[in-house]
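Aim 2 progress update. The chain analyzed this quarter is reproduced below.
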Amino acid sequence: MKLKLNLAIGVLIVLLTDIYLYAQPNKEILVKGKVVDEKGIILPEIKISVENTKEYTYTDENGEYTLKLSPGNYTITAEPLDEDKISKKIILIDEDIKNLDFKINSRQIEDVVITGTRFTSRTLLDSPTPVDIIDIKKVAGNGAQVSINQILNYVAPSFTSTPQSLGGSTDMTDPASLRGLGPDQVLVLVNGKRRYNSATINVNGTFGKGTVGTDMNAIPVSSIDRIEILRDAAAAQYGSDAVAGVINIILKNTVNKFSASITGGEYLSKNIAQDKTSHDGENVQVNLNYGIPLGKQGGFINFSTTFDKRNSTDRGGIYNGTIYKDFSSGIGIDKTDDFLAATHTTRRDYSLKIGQSKLLSGQIAYNAILPVNPITELYSFGIFGYRNSIASQFYRYPNSANNVNEIYPLGFLPQAEASIYDRSVVVGIKSKISDWKIDISNTYGQNVFNNKTKNTVNASLGSDSPTSFQGGKLKFMQNVFNMDASRELDWLSGVNIAFGGEYRYERYQIIAGEEASYANYGLGKSITNKDGSISIIPDINGNIPIKFAPDGKTPIAGGAQGNAGFSPENATDSHRNSLAGYADLEINFSSSFLINAAARYEYYNDFGNTVNGKIAFRYKILPNLTFRGSGNTGFRAPSLQQRYYSNTSTLYLNGNMYEVGTFTNDSKIAGLLGIPNLKAEKSKSISAGLTSKLGPLHISLDGYFTRVNDRIVYTDLFGGDPNGSTVDQEIYKILQQAGAQKARFFANAINTETKGLDAVISYQTSLGKGKLFIDLAGTISYTQQVGNIHTSELLKGKEKIYFSDASKIYIENAIPNQKFNLSLTYDISKWSFFVRNNYFGGVTEPTYVEYQQFYNPRWITDTSISYKVLKFFKITVGANNLFNIYPEKVAIASNSNNGQFVYSRYVSQFGFNGRYLFSKVNFDF
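Predicted structure tokens:
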């Protein structure tokens, strides 16, 4: 009888509760709580979900979360990564606030990897290939770096990117390397979708010469949740460019949370180059982020924006060469001292400005998901940006072939102004058909480079020359359509099958500038008169010099000095499309042993087809010790920029200044020299490593080997001879018509091998009332040319021009072969203390053998202190390069450009601007 009574009362309570809940469907109850570990240490970024709904959120940096729910019965689950879920049931009736805390017995909260695998629950040390996961909020919060490339340079072991100077458009893009390979041999993804390349190509004297990379600095830092770096070849999974690995940038998806940060700083250091205290390079960055819920099924749209303003720096030395020559006697007599006295100027006034360029930048981004029903969602994300940079070029001295004395009696310092426009949009749909997960998307991206030169002249126009020129544009557009399908099966210990296809269309354009930006009005051509006599008439398409410098011998220079524009002969509108299909299989034979295999077929309409494969495995030798490895074949299709770029620009090399023309491989001059058409690079690679997880201690050690055949290089300088063979004379005439003295090309000149070892160790522990985080990461990598230089019969004897000593160094030692960093972070109460020591290995000057100089390794120390003033307000102050360390000085006179290059302009371990002081404020509401 008692049992029946209790049952009746229970049923009545349930019925009354349901009636009550039904009567007030619009009421919202605030569910709040805190998540900590067994020691009471708060756990941020823990997912809190509501069972059988789309409602979820994440704990903030205080380990706290908030949910808004209607009255009802719910199961709330805390989902720490790499740990068991914890669920609690609650009944919400008539309260305004409900408290629900969680305590997790946490060994280590570890991220889930999505790059390099299509299995949805693969964790970091569980992955068969090495992946670094960079928490941007945490890393950017401690350091002075405000761009993606620089953030990664100081935290990712095998990633290298250094600021450039006097590198033209390269000053804005900072070429990046992974595992010592080229900037065009790493594939960049955003939310797993292929990111487009830059429209510009690196044809200046910097690391990555001759390559086209992806401009990650165009992505606003405020939009990024984390970055996953796959340090393993993945062409079979993702296609061309993934020879060295993949960088996948994951955008934020938070809602109902406003975050903002303002970072300001400047270089304040003893400037060894100028023997004075530098106070320059002021920089301010503003980041904003806010997310809005869409619908009631967990949809969202997250907005981000980043604004940057940076001033230039100058670490150049004082020019000690000839500034002014007097030709009145017929020979050039150095009258520099008299000239300086008469003009009341000093040598400093005629010296180069060597350092970072002036920059103004702004980007906005969005990331959105809209569920249509429980199994289907629409998604979209986009990034739009603008950057403007002004960089100084080489000084043009008075009374020279490059100057017009009537306009610039003291000579001039040309300035290259570049404006870069970026836009990209991705739209897609995810759904399920039977047990298959389907993802269909379209990715569009475009990069536009607008070329302008200021404070300059076209010397061949004389006093009629303008002082600024519109030099034309470069445009690169990419559109990618993807369809992917995957399915998880419960065979063995889990099987995942995936397959898909991709269609990619690319378009590359060079748009000519105004005529005066490229034309040489000091050229003419010969015509035969009616009486049979020969006359020379002005003609910008001619090849006979008719205007000369004050010395009476040197032909006057044409085009905009410092940054010549694109001519109609350079203009191109090139297209390419490719079609690909792939299959991916991952088999967990047991909890200890898995194998992943992938194959990809890809067809390009401009060079043909290729088939590539990958196999990777992971085997747990012991519960806390795992052995992993992989073998890959890969490829990189030559970029449209490498195939179709042509232009004439100024190059300073070993004390001499040249006007150098870049010509396409199908040009007449390429045929005369025997330069073949470009073909795809082919690669093979293997890697093997060990991972271990001993409580809070995580260790990974991975070795690798990569062979690249037919690697594309940017050749050295070929020249013609007006008095040489018939071929040399014809080459000389073509160069004259292009306003050039030398010629360069892109060519599949060599094979290379790269060997390396990466190590990552992380540890965290309680220390007193706080928590200590220790991260040690390092890489040792060596790339070298193997085999002979690939020359044609016409190139016999010119191998050192086809692939020069300088080009060899650019590939083998223009970036550090060893890099290590040790980071210590201690959080206690409202304080956070951070210190990082970075080791950058030595590099070599890329030039002729007799001028090669090795620059010794350096240690750089960064530090910061943060204090949380209020729950939503934090202040950080710190220093990058605290002890004001500079690279080793240039010791060989021929590399210094008459004393102006105190530090090498061609290679840089970490930059040469010295100590940087910064402060930062963060708001989180």
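The chain has two domains: 2-104, 131-317+352-411+441-520+557-924. The radius of gyration is 31 Å. These observations will guide the mutagenesis experiments scheduled for the next reporting period.
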